[in-house]
Amino acid sequence: MKHILALDQGTTSSRAIAFAEDGSVRAMAQQEFRQIFPHPGWVEHDPEEIWAPQLKVARHALARAALKATDIAALGITNQRETTILWERNSGRPVHNAIVWQDRRTAAACDSLKRRGKTQAVRSKTGLVLGPYFSATKLAWLLDGIPGLRLRAERGELAFGTVDSWLAWKLSGGALHVTDVSNASRTMLYNIHAGAWDEGLLALFRIPRSLPLRVLPCQQFTTKLAPIAPSLPGVRSGAKLT
């Protein structure tokens, strides 16, 4: 019987669940991780503290279910969506803490855009209200607020992603820089009608074109996972990431 390993990367904890082919739960493991509050209204996570417990609970779930490598047919990810991460393409190291979806540091920047009459332009393309909840102004804050990051991004040295993208990158050993439509649509940079990153929105938020990642339909978010073997010995190289 084939199984699916589901990774549930939430705002306060990492969870992994092993499902049997009939949908029954074979095993589950969960671990909380640290919340960081640098200032009132600011919420951050250490991306490595997202990855480490997620890897740990995945291994525990596999062990508790007594699964062999050939038992895993696919691995799925569900995650906190708008949380924004920047990391180095070469090393895979984060350049700053993740800015969490709850974070309000860019509220003033959003208000400024509203006064400039940008609300409808954003809503018509994304279906979203213009607010700090979404990834666009968080990413802009990182590029402008941390010395040197904008220049490095323009040189193509940095990768941007939401939490699903970060996990896919880590799970694949840097082979995957991807997201799915449902996560891309929460960045405030993705045109839901065109099904693509929107050049006008990238310009509005001053996001270098080198940063947006490949967007795939949820059902096609798949790859051979040979690079995953060192991290999750219980997953065979022919498994799919879904």
Describe the structure.
This protein has 242 residues and is of the alpha/beta class. The chain has one domain: ATPase, nucleotide binding domain (Nucleotidyltransferase, domain 5), CATH 3.30.420. It has helices at 47-64, 107-115, 119-126, 135-145, 149-154, 163-171, 181-184, 199-204, and strands at 3-9, 13-20, 25-32, 44-45, 72-79, 85-88, 98-99, 158-161, 178-180, 190-191, 196-197, 214-216, 240-241. A 5-stranded mixed β-sheet has the order 3-2-1-5-13. It has a two-stranded antiparallel ribbon with strand order 4-7. A hairpin with a 4-residue loop joins strand 10 and strand 11 (196-197). The longest helix has 18 residues, at 47-64. The two termini are 18 Å apart.
Count of individual helical segments: 8
Proportion in β-strands: 15-25%
What is the β-strand count? 13
The name CATH uses for the topology is Nucleotidyltransferase, domain 5
Rg over alpha carbons: 18 Å
The ordered H/E elements are EEEEHEEEHHHHEHEHEEHEE
